[in-house]
């Protein structure tokens, strides 16, 4: 009698290859883990590489909450050319000599785009406008506006400024940058806005995501490595790493898993999702403090 395959519950931290959509990676993981229940916590553009957090089986219930955590990127911004997609995937729409742009001007432009800012996402993006994906409207040649959204860029650092010559002979500048930002921030929109502020245009040429919340590149595995050995972060470890931990006694654990709204300690007020554990270290539920009580977001125990 053949043994039934039981897919593991947990997170898989993938080092996404360039040229793959996030959906492509999910489809590949379904084959590797032999389950349909696979999802991702926040997309990465096809051009980008790096940390993509996938959930398998019950861990898919964590993904919506993980998607809201802080992200970190390394990238290259080309100053001197605009593209239709704000990155290297799109057709170049303008070229301007950027050789006269000073480091001081670049630093001032970066400072303008740091902190709590209003950002207009790229038109060729997955943002929905009246229920239709923005990239679909753009491809159909529609004229439309995307409203600006509040995002937080907690750190925007330029490590190097490299003079270069674009394929059409235009002198450009390639900036090697790192960005730490809130969920929903478009790095290619930062590149576009930095170039616009400098008066010469700009777009993103390279992007690598190095962190999603507590999950870093050193924990990520390529699809080939995962095909050889599926490395899964157990759901309890994943929750403890990503959210504040609340340990409850056996009686409270029973009440919590039965849907009773327990009183929550004041320290968890306003912290967002909290991972509740029983005395054995079993991950019971993801809860949120609401008027002093624990409101269940997802039950696992």
From TrEMBL:
Record: active site: 45
Keywords: Isomerase, tRNA processing
Domain Pseudouridine synthase II N-terminal: 31-187
MF GO annotations: RNA binding; tRNA pseudouridine(55) synthase activity
Spans through the membrane: none
EC number: 5.4.99.25
InterPro entries per the UniProt record, alphabetical: PsdUridine_synth_cat_dom_sf, PsdUridine_synth_N, PUA-like_sf, PUA_sf, tRNA_psdUridine_synth_fam2_C, tRNA_psdUridine_synth_TruB, TruB_C
Domain tRNA pseudouridine synthase II TruB subfamily 2 C-terminal: 243-300
Pfam families: TruB_C, TruB_C_2, TruB_N
Top EC class of this enzyme: isomerase
Coiled-coil features, chain-numbered ranges: none
GO terms (BP aspect): mRNA pseudouridine synthesis; tRNA pseudouridine synthesis
Keyword Repeat: no
Catalysed reactions, as listed in the record: uridine(55) in tRNA = pseudouridine(55) in tRNA
Domain tRNA pseudouridylate synthase B C-terminal: 188-230
SUPFAM superfamilies: Pseudouridine synthase (SSF55120), PUA domain-like (SSF88697)
Family per record: Belongs to the pseudouridine synthase TruB family. Type 1 subfamily.
UniProt function note: Responsible for synthesis of pseudouridine from uracil-55 in the psi GC loop of transfer RNAs.
HAMAP family the record matches: TruB_bact
Protein name: tRNA pseudouridine synthase B
Gene designation: truB
